[in-house]
Amino acid sequence: MPTGVALRDPREQLFEAAERILLRDGPSALTSRAVTAEAGCAKGVLHRHFADFDAFLAEFVMERVGRIAPQAAALRDAAGTGTVAGNVTDALTALFESVAVAVVALITFRDELRARLRDTWPAGVPVLTEAVTMIAGYLAAERDLGRIAAGADVDVLAPTLIGTAHLLFADRTGPPPQTAAVHRMVSSVLAGTLQAAKR
Predict the structure, then answer these.
(1) Residue 18's closest CA among 2, 3, 38?
(2) Which residues constitute the domain of residue 45?
(3) In angstroms, what CA-CA distances link 106 with 22, 99, 101, 175, 196?
(4) Coiled coil: which residue ranges (predicted)?
């Protein structure tokens, strides 16, 4: 795209380009030149909107993390419906089939990005910590409804579920795990906490 041609939403267009590259080619392929080429815009567009490439990546990560909030709200609203294991399976599959796994790889890959994110996100990896909060909130709601045992420690169950799911989905070069495999893992982690008739 020639310089001077207006983009519909330059920041989001650049974010979408970064996501496509990240999913297709991995974090090592994510450069400012690759992003602007993928977005079909002049190289200077990225630097007009962001101080530098790591500032762009930090905002990209935080914007993608922000997308977890609606997923978390929908999951909380599902409390009391379906089965607990089924709801958690669906939520984990939706989360890890999105750009989440690739974003975790990107944060791990780039030291400067991790340093930038620490300014606004002092502990943990943004995508994973938000995912833990989402699952813990849902499990707490189910515990309040009596579908999970009153003594269930959701603050231990949630990171266990997220960590194990991340391992299942981590290899983006092969096919994603089948729903049955994710459900089996969820059921195993939650075993002993689910009320018998409401699993």
Answers:
(1) 38
(2) 10-49
(3) 8, 10, 9, 20, 41
(4) none
> What count of residues does the chain have?
199
CA dihedral sign, ordered 14, 68, 51, 104: negative
**Residue 5 belongs to some domain of the structure:** no
Residue 103, phi-psi category: left (phi > 0), alpha (psi -120 to 50), beta (remainder): alpha
Please give the pLDDT value at position 173.
Answer: 72
Give me the CATH number covering residue 125. Answer: 1.10.357.10
What tens digit of pLDDT does each residue of 101-143 get?
Answer: 788 888 888 888 888 887 776 566 778 888 999 999 999 999 9
Report the 3 state secondary structure along 130-189: HHHHHHHHHHHHHHHCCCECCCCCHHHHHHHHHHHHHHHHCCCCCCCCCHHHHHHHHHHH
Q: Rounded distance, CA 149 to CA 135, Å?
A: 16
